[in-house]
Amino acid sequence: MLLVQHLLNGLLAGAYYLLIALGLSLIFSLGGIVNLAHGAFYAIGAYLAITIGRHLGFGGALLISPVLVGLLGVVIERLLLRRFYKADPSLSLLLTFGLAMVAEQALRMIYGAPPLSWEIPQALRGQFVVADFFYPKYRTLLIAVAVACVAGLWFLLQRTPFGRVVRAGVQNPEMVGALGISLEPYMAAIAFIGIGLAGLAGVMLAPIFNIHPAMGQEIITSAFVVVVIGGLGSFWGVVIAAAIVGVTKGAVTAGGYPQYSEAAIYLLMLLVLLVRPRGLLGERIVRFE
Amino acid sequence: MSQAKGMSRRTIIKGALAGAATTGLAGFPFISYGQSDMIRIGHLTPRTGFLGTLGEYAVQAVDMAVAEINAAGGVLGRKIELLKEDSVNPQTASTKAERMIERDKVAMLIGEISSASGLTIGQVAARTKTLFINTGCNSDELRGKSCNKFMFHIESQNSMYVKTCGRSLLAQGLVKGKKWFSLTADYAFGHDLLRVAKKFMGANGGEFAADKLVPTDVTDFSPLLLEIRNAKPDLVISNLAGNQITAFLKQYAEFGLPFPTAGFGFDTAVAWAAGKGNFSGTWPLVWHHLIDTPATKKFVADFTARYKRPPENQAWGDYNAMKLVAQAMAETKSTDSLKIVEHFEKEAKFPLMKTRDGYFRKADHQMMHEMYTVKGIPAAQLKNDWDIFTSSPPVPGPNEPLEVIATQGDEIECKMA
To answer: What ipTM is given for this predicted complex?
Structure first.
């Protein structure tokens, strides 16, 4: 029974990374930009949630904070990222690395370095207990939100005209341009969605994780590992990889070796890349080869 | 769009970015040469990373102490000039300590929180014969095998934390014949603390159901909480550090586990960050903002007026280290490290905002002073965001020597060169 709980908990832990990794993957697939500042948007989401939550409660923060973070993402995309779509990838790495540092220091200057407090709203406290099985209500909600995001995103990308253009743009932006479609508004929309999802993760995780200026760094490396294992450009690859990474971390911790849980996911990444250099479900994208 | 316009906009953005980057570096050392009438003191502490959250209190407090000293005319007729840097990690800490001593000619060093970094700074202090006051590293090893003539500790050692909290746990009947489940930060401080905690349990007839090492970057404790629930221990013990404790407290409350908790390493800031109703258990502190002495009340009022929030124990450490160094310089009429070391080794008394004065024990340079245990107040009884616990009276009690909570006899492994 304990083993089942650990497996399930690991799967659920993957959901935290998923919200971050999906955005990372989307922005990379369409724009070719590895967004090192993605963790910073997660942190901004958490801090904004506290500011908004003081006036409008948890519900208000949950609705407004991700939208504000998404809009900030659009501003960054329009002002900065779009200049680097066709540039040497190392330039955008430098840019986003710098952005991450600016964001972290800005949070430190505005809110101070000590961690801020924020708790689970009263209505969502408590645990579900069914016979031997046991899980906190709040984490169950977290999973529901992650599943809803995956479903919504899948529908948007696979079943709408918007999604068709985005998918075509990932494979062959020149051809999309030749057909008379400008990808620019699509990039802005993808930045809104991808970065907004990072903000949403920030709001959702703030009540159970530690809220401090460098919190983005804590989650971003795991999210990158998920994207790499899943395969760039692959929607389901990222979803599956998030689950695998979550279960691996949980299993190693539960097995009595929490000190090796971080190393385990890098080893996993190494093994996957040895067997499948493009990741589990990575597609061949000519311009990234 | 004209070329010129495009260029200028790009230039503005570059300028804005550069500006933002520069502001991010605020707190870089301000070095002004040719002011030999100033007494220059180096301050090193982690300002980023998982202990950086505490470092800000250290920096604010030492700034406040220097401002007060200088406003009162300085020391020996000279003003104090503070050089402050982020110590980052053990390697960087020792490099910066060397540079402050050899290039910037600081008279002494104050600060640090990470025991691993404190160790390397201590080595530099010994080699260059420069006084170093450790304000936040707890490992016994720094006062034991790795002690040296130039390193002093206003922060309590792990043994003092364990024995202080242990007294309270003994009184609650949570030790003899009981099973503990412990979580330990996987670095120098945690390993040292676990060793001391095991010794305490062995001596008092308890045992460990499990002890797990937790990397300092772990944010999700859920797999461990499931393990704890399954193990049904009598007490859950935290040997965690910094941000880890906040995440642990939040998630322990989330999982609603019924077992009592306690910890052997603690800072008030991590409890403040846990959120309403999430702080529970029995924890030791070297000082806290609710101590009922005039000096504590004044410090809390002044710090709150200056920084818009009350000080916590790390602020106490750096503020008092600076103040007692100034007092020692005045008493010895010297800024020479060796003279001040000799003064400290005479076990000179210093006021530390508590009911009794403290002194550095000659044997290992550990500050002998009162400590406290605190217990969380239920959410319904909270009056504000800060006063979230009740405190024990000072430990040890008024009729006991201060040394009873420190390492004793054979436990003192320090051999001063």
So the answer is: 0.90
